[in-house]
Design a protein that fits this description.
Distance between the termini: 91 Å
Largest sheet: 6 strands, parallel
Number of helices: 11
CATH architecture of the largest domain: 3-Layer(aba) Sandwich
Structural class: alpha/beta
Strand order of the largest sheet: 2-1-3-4-5-11
Mean pLDDT: 91
CATH superfamily of the largest domain: Response regulator
């Protein structure tokens, strides 16, 4: 009799332990299944990408139960090899999704294919991967970002109000192998053609302050009648402002940029920069992450993801 009671008590204890342990096990399984998203950006020396990173981290913090986030970027805008290496590290780490702002529109495609082949969802933000190269690799990668040509044309149109037919201008372009640099240059050119301005020179400032300064200085030196410098981002615009000052042409040469980073705001206020464009860095990251999470939650394959999610871009002036 005692033996039977002992067995019943023991069985009840086991059952109780199992019932208590079950929610913990379920919670543990849920935590283990929480998707891991990697945000891989360009240069974190660029305030635009720091803003993007902050926006992504804030979003994750408010949705901590939904996904984990890893953020990473390269030291300078042209270090494509380092960005490829970061993506390769994310593949080895077995992240569930990569949200990528590529440093080069073509060079990143092979490693993107490697990620997709490993079963990782890839979403492209900020700078669009080259559609022809993607097609050659039979890749479908959704793009989340603004119409860069439209944004640059808005900035160029605002500048055009200060110009007349025949006025000479120069364009300080971003990294020339990137789609967004090419699109912004196209938007600037379209605006200048409408007013009949003459584009003397298009040179790459590689998205960076120092390089932008050197290129702007060279353009001002070679073309003394330049009336404006149209810069593909605000970093290069900051460099151009210094070049204009060094050439003794403050108030005589207009400078415009693109991105609306905090560092440009005092220059907009005092007129050293005429206009820029806000392409909402944080929103791009959040929309990109959401696109990836939706694909994961719906168990979609990369080939089933749809094309373009256009994010806003707005003219910013004094």
């Amino acid at each position: 009799m005692d033996h039977r009671i002992r067995r019943r008590v023991l069985a009840a204890a086991v059952a109780l332990t199992a019932s208590v342990a079950l929610p913990f096990s379920t919670a543990h399984a849920q935590a283990a299944s929480k998707p891991k998203v990697a945000l891989v950006m360009k240069s974190l020396a660029n305030e635009f990408f720091l803003t993007m990173e902050t926006g992504a981290k804030d979003y994750q913090k408010h949705n901590a139960s939904q996904f984990d986030l890893i953020t990473n970027g390269i030291k300078n805008e042209t270090d494509t090899a380092a960005q490829i290496q970061i993506v390769e590290q994310m593949i080895v780490s077995k992240v569930d999704a990569i949200v990528l702002a590529p440093a080069d529109s073509k060079a990143l495609v092979p490693v993107v294919k490697k990620a997709v082949d490993a079963g990782i969802i890839v979403v492209n933000i900020d700078n669009r991967l080259d559609p022809d190269v993607l097609k050659s690799k039979d890749l479908n990668v959704p793009f989340v970002g603004p119409d860069n040509a439209k944004g640059a044309e808005k900035v160029g149109d605002y500048l055009a109000q200060k110009l007349k037919a025949g006025d000479e201008v120069g364009i300080v372009e971003g990294v020339s192998t990137t789609t967004n640099a090419q699109q912004r240059t196209a938007g600037f050119k379209a605006a200048m053609q409408k007013v009949g301005a003459k584009i003397d020179s298009v040179q790459s400032g590689e998205w960076e302050i120092d390089k932008g300064n050197a290129v702007a200085s060279a353009i001002l030196n070679e073309y003394p009648n330049i009336k404006a410098l149209l810069c593909g981002n605000d970093n290069m615009a900051i460099g151009a402002v210094s070049a204009v000052r060094a050439a003794g042409k403050q108030g005589k040469v207009y400078v415009v940029g693109y991105d609306d980073i905090d560092a440009i705001k005092p220059m907009l206020k005092d007129g050293r920069v005429l206009a820029t464009a806000n392409q909402y860095a944080a929103k791009q990251a959040v929309f990109g992450i959401d696109t990836a999470l939706k694909a994961l939650s719906e168990h979609k394959k990369q080939s089933e993801l749809s094309g373009v999610v256009e994010t806003p871009v707005d003219l910013v002036t004094k």
